[in-house]
Design goal:
Elements: H1 7-20, E1 34-40, E2 44-52, H2 54-57, H3 63-74, H4 80-92, E3 96-100, E4 103-105, E5 108-110, E6 129-137, E7 144-149, E8 156-162, E9 169-173, E10 182-183, H5 198-209, H6 214-224, H7 230-252, H8 260-280, H9 289-313, H10 320-346, H11 355-379
Parallel strand pairs: 1-8
Antiparallel strand pairs: 1-2, 2-6, 3-4, 3-7, 5-6, 7-10, 8-9
Helix pairs in contact: 1-11, 5-10, 6-8, 6-10, 7-9, 7-10, 8-9, 8-11
Length: 380
């Protein structure tokens, strides 16, 4: 019996290698915005910034290399450890800026967690992000101050605290976007800081699919590769959209919430199961009710994943309707972009006599293999 690989199996192997080699960790929501708390008084400014390590390891070729890099730094002994902290301080100092009355105020940066003795015994997974504290003293009280973070640190959720203000002000900042200049003194008649625009929420939703949501992209592609026609695809996408919209709202309101340890493996498993069903399905003009129900149930899981990501971002709930509407619109635009791209790419291939055997089934096998791989890695 010949041991040569059939064309279909060879294409399935190629699809799998391409998908598994896509950069990024096997988690659904890897890029959590930085969390910044800026406290302003007449005497000075205090900053607490928590930023993910991805901001420092983006140049490394794969997640394992990034983990190995962090592990090596955490295990440095003196004096190498002190030298590394100094390099880290020199790297961050020009990238974190407090501006007051148009002038940059130098911050003295410290790393309270990394400076604690005994960190060299901790695994990298136990220090998932970097805590940076910065202080600056004012020679005289400024009229207004603001925060600017370098684009390499990504987006940020800014919480502003000022003397005489009862509640924190919260603002979503895009990558490299400076905050407004905030007056230090409480002024009852001062205009409120404008909330993020509707377009900002739409953009966040779109980017959560393209390019950050590879697992959601693969799930939508699994729906597409059933190959049952536009009507069947519309039924599935509609069920998926309604489901994830419902649990996204419920999750942000605190009505329904599950820990990431359950949601992330379940999302990966949903990708594998839908793609595996596609492998054994024949092209047809419609889909069964069972398929639509299954897609709806899996959409509930994906919606809880969306809710978890937005909750970590700390978006204010008083703007919930606009947040949900804009984010959902961005998500649907991202899904539509994926489907249109898939349709354009496969359109000339559908004329091939062996399209089902050479393209559709190998693609589904590759998607299923990726989903199974992510399921295992997210559990263990």
């Amino acid at each position: 019996m010949s041991t040569a690989l059939r064309p279909g199996r060879l294409l399935a192997l190629a699809w799998g290698l391409c998908l598994l080699c896509v950069p990024g960790r096997p988690v659904a929501h890897p890029l959590v915005p930085a969390d910044a708390t800026l406290s302003l008084t007449d005497a000075g400014a205090d900053l607490q910034l928590t930023v993910g390590w991805h901001a420092f390891t983006a140049h490394l070729p794969d997640p394992e290399a990034a983990d190995a890099f962090l592990e090596a730094q955490l295990r440095l002994a003196e004096p190498e450890r002190t030298a590394w902290l100094e390099r880290l301080r020199a790297h961050l100092t020009p990238r974190i800026t407090v501006r007051c009355d148009g002038a940059a105020i130098p911050l003295r940066l410290t790393f309270p967690v990394l400076s604690t003795p005994g960190q060299e015994t901790l695994p990298a997974a136990s220090v998932p992000s970097l805590l940076v504290e910065g202080t600056a003293a004012f020679t005289e009280a400024p009229a207004a101050c603001g925060l600017a973070l370098d684009e390499s640190l990504g987006g940020a959720i800014l919480r502003l605290r000022r003397s005489g203000r009862f509640a924190d002000e919260i603002r979503l900042l895009g990558a490299g976007e400076p905050s407004p200049m905030y007056p230090l003194r409480a002024m009852p008649e001062a205009p409120s800081v404008p909330a993020p625009s509707f377009a900002t929420y739409v953009l966040v939703g779109f980017e959560h699919i393209v390019p950050d949501g590879l697992d959601h992209v693969l799930f939508v592609l699994a729906l597409f590769f059933l190959g049952a026609g536009l009507r069947a695809l519309a039924w599935q996408v509609t069920a998926f959209t309604l489901a994830h919209s419902a649990t996204l709202a419920a999750g942000l309101l605190g009505v329904a919430r599950l820990p990431p340890e359950i949601i992330e493996p379940a999302i990966a498993a949903s990708i594998a199961l839908v793609a595996l069903e596609d492998v054994f399905a024949r092209a047809q003009t419609d889909v069964s009710r069972r398929r639509v129900v299954v897609v709806f149930l899996f959409g509930l899981l994906h919606g809880l994943g969306f809710a978890g990501a937005l909750s970590e971002a700390g978006l204010p709930t008083d703007d919930l309707v606009r947040t949900l509407l804009g984010f959902n619109l961005g998500v649907e635009a991202g899904q539509l972009a994926v489907l249109l791209t898939a349709a354009l790419v496969t359109m000339p291939l559908r004329r091939i006599a062996g399209y089902d055997r050479l393209v559709r089934r190998p693609a589904c096998i590759a998607i299923a293999a990726t989903g199974l791989y992510w399921t295992v890695t997210r559990i263990f």
